[in-house]
Design a protein that fits this description.
This protein is mostly helical and 274 residues long. 71% of the residues lie in helices and 0% in strands. The longest helix has 25 residues. The radius of gyration is 19 Å and the shape is globular.
Length: 274
């Protein structure tokens, strides 16, 4: 049991779980746009997410010398290094345009973490913008990159899926912000800090209705609605709504870092089995 707890803790702390969430959304994009299995882009996103999230989580603490290199963190550092090597390996298997856009999102990640301007905070600490940067990056990495790499034509469906994906990530981050409300710096101006928990939840419910409603405007080649995607979207919206309903500051960190981040994985598994 102790070994299982240690492995689970490493699985979460090393960002493997969030990497799988991104991987699942890439696979969802490929399914939605009928892209034949494109393993390099999916693996690039998986390992890139691990490297990016570990960099964001541990860099600031390491530079401030507030992070002692315990055994687990040393293992995570080594793991992240090998993940970085795999990121480079898969990067050179991507289309040129995909590489360029991927570098653009890497720049946003660096801006999010590192203070580029003297006496200025990094983007992570800019008041009120964190949630938008995170949602934008997830949309770009899990939707735009697979589309570009497969050379799929940009149609109305693409833009609708971008809005849907943005709303999905936005609402998931709202849950994180509610859970972290007591610990977040007031200067961050997160959504719950600005409008309160109750109104944040109401905002989330409205966005989930829009998230589901947009599916009626998505179409396949013959412009005919398919019942199964609608049911899956509805199920995912209900699941997220329940997570949002029961979100509060007393919840364990695993409420978000495992359960909430499992939503994209669950969505992908539902598609695979159904």
């Amino acid at each position: 049991m102790k070994l299982f707890k240690q492995l689970f803790k490493f699985y979460i702390n090393s960002s493997i779980h969030v990497g799988l969430s991104c991987y699942a959304l890439v696979r969802m994009t490929q399914h939605m746009f009928h892209i034949s299995s494109d393993k390099p882009i999916a693996d690039f996103v998986f390992f890139g997410t691990i490297v990016g999230y570990n960099f964001v989580k541990y860099d600031a603490l390491a530079r401030a010398k507030k992070l002692k290199m315990r055994k687990e963190l040393k293992i995570i550092a080594v793991f992240s290094f090998f993940a970085l090597l795999l990121v480079g390996f898969y990067f050179f298997q991507l289309q040129r345009i995909t590489q360029i856009v991927a570098i653009a999102f890497l720049s946003i990640t660096l801006l999010y973490t590192l203070p580029f301007f003297p006496n200025k905070k990094n983007a992570r600490n800019w008041a009120g913008v964190k949630i938008y940067i995170v949602a934008l990056c997830w949309v770009g990495v899990t939707l735009a990159l697979p589309i570009l790499n497969a050379d799929v034509s940009i149609t109305l469906d693409f833009y609708l899926k971008c809005i849907q994906r943005f709303i999905l990530i936005f609402v998931l981050v709202l849950i994180f912000e509610i859970i972290d409300l007591a610990n977040d710096d007031p200067h961050l101006q997160t959504v719950p800090q600005q409008i309160g928990v109750r109104r944040t939840k109401m905002l989330g419910y409205v966005l989930l209705i829009i998230f589901f409603g947009l599916e009626f405007f998505n179409s396949n080649v013959n412009f005919q609605f398919s019942l199964l995607p609608l049911l899956l979207i509805f199920a995912i919206a209900i699941i997220i709504a329940l997570f949002l309903l029961f979100a509060n500051g007393k919840r364990s960190k695993y409420y978000t870092s495992f359960w909430v981040e499992s939503v994209p994985i669950l969505w992908w598994l539902m598609v695979l089995f159904l």
